[in-house]
Every structure is written in C-alpha cells, then in structure tokens.
Amino acid sequence: MIMSKTPTVTLNNGVEMPLLGFGVFLIPPDDTERAVLQALEAGYRSIDTAAAYQNEEAVGRAIAASGIPRDELFVTTKLWITDAGDEPAQRAIGTSLRKLGLDQLDLCLIHVPYGDYYGTWRALEAAHRQGSVRAIGVSNFHPDRLTDLIAHNEVVPAVDQVETHPYLQRTDDEQAMRKRTVQIESWGPLAQGQHNLLQDPVLLELARTHGKSTAQVVLRWLTQRRVPAVVKSTRPQRIRENLAVFDFELTDAEMARIAALDGRTGPTFDLRDADTVDFTNNMTH
Length: 285
Fold this sequence. Notes:
Layout: E1 8-10, E2 16-18, E3 20-23, H1 29-42, E4 46-48, H2 56-66, E5 74-79, H3 86-100, E6 105-110, H4 117-130, E7 133-139, H5 143-151, E8 159-163, H6 171-179, E9 183-187, H7 201-210, H8 214-224, E10 229-231, H9 236-243, H10 252-259, H11 274-281
Parallel strand pairs: 3-4, 3-10, 4-5, 5-6, 6-7, 7-8, 8-9, 9-10
Antiparallel strand pairs: 1-2
C-alpha cells in the first residue's frame, strides 16, 4: 500500500502505482541523488529510472538517505537492449537491484521493443514469480507489438510507458491498452520542453483560470484521466510545483479543450523509423 497523498491507480495484478512519479532521465549521476532526495522530501513516492540512464546507484543512495520506509515507495527501472534475452536480462535485473540497494523492484519494464525482448520478457516473468519484481511491463511498445507479446506469453504487461502529452495524445493506443488491461503511463508529459507546449494559448488561459502553471495544467489533465505520468526537474521549486496538481480539477469543457490540441506534433523518437532503430540499437549504457 502506498502511504502517500498522491492518488494511485491499481494495475492488472492488484499492485498500486502512484499517478505521478519523479523521473531521472538525462540527470547526470552526480546530480541525481540530490534531485531524488528533493523529490522525496517534496512528497513524491514514485521514482522512475533505467539501466540506460546510468544513475541507478545515485537513486539508490537517495532512497537509503531519505529514511522513508520501503513499503511507502514505488521504484521503477527498465532493461536496455544490451541486456536483451533470458539469461542477460536475469543478470540485468540482479544488477539493477544491487545498484538500487533493493531486494525488490515495484515495476520493471522492457525499455524498447528491440532485440530478443521475448527472452527478456521470460526473465521478467520468472522474476515476477520469484518475487523480486512486483509488476512487470514494457515501454515504447506500439499496440501491434504489445498485443503480440500478450498473445504468446503468460503474464500480461501491467504497464506500457509511452510518450504522450496534449500534442501527442495517442488515444487509439490508450484504448488498445485498456482493452487488454494494460495501464498506459506517460513519459515526456511536458513534451520535454519542446514544441512550445507550455506556451500554448489554451494552456496559458487555463493556467490563469486556476492560478496554476501550464505544466500543472498538463499534469492535472493526464492524472485526471487516470494516466500516470513521470515528470523530471532538477529545480527544487519546480519539483514541488509539479506535484501540486491534486488540489484543483479541470471541468469537462476544459478537458475537451485540451483534447482538441491533439496532433500538433509527432513523437520525439519514432521507434518505427529505420534510422531510429539503427541509432537505438547502436546505443550502449
């Protein structure tokens, strides 16, 4: 049970996950411990990292230093392509646990649908059975690959973490996930500062109406739809501000105005593009 003021969603295996998490993508290891500690002090209880981010050890130090009981935290990490396959993924899960200083992960995801991700999924299923991972899922899977993975394996992914925000809403993908009991989760909920999303006139107007920032309006729009989001900042004031989204509510009309912003941009990384596939497969961590 998550002992936090942050509302939760219940995953398909009964595990509760906070609707808002703190992410550490592109935060250098030297800055990660401080940022995560500030996030935990602000009230975040969900922390999202990945082997490819190269900062799991710093996340682990922050968790240990925080003094927060383990059962009040929800920790997510992801397995990279270089550890794809059954045996490599088993080793990678153990490596992540060691770096994080944990006996159990709350959620472990396949980072991208490349390489022997079926072998990786078998390793995750085994870890789930053994209890070293409470919930398993995927990231950046389009509905076709997600559905095929479900068809040929025992455990249905609890989560599919994908890029989604007001300009890229992926409602068809979300419907496909929900039909199969997979929880959509947003990475890049603020479009990673691109496309002038936070200067959008509609969002600015709604922010003025509610006395909030445009970032808070976007995060409220996601979480009000029961879409968990992972948000990142290294600025203490912004870290606190991003969490303060559960004390106001958008009306149905306001939600519809944001929904009308869909389609303003494509994905940051088109994981079906051949050059992107080449680039990603050549990345190491």
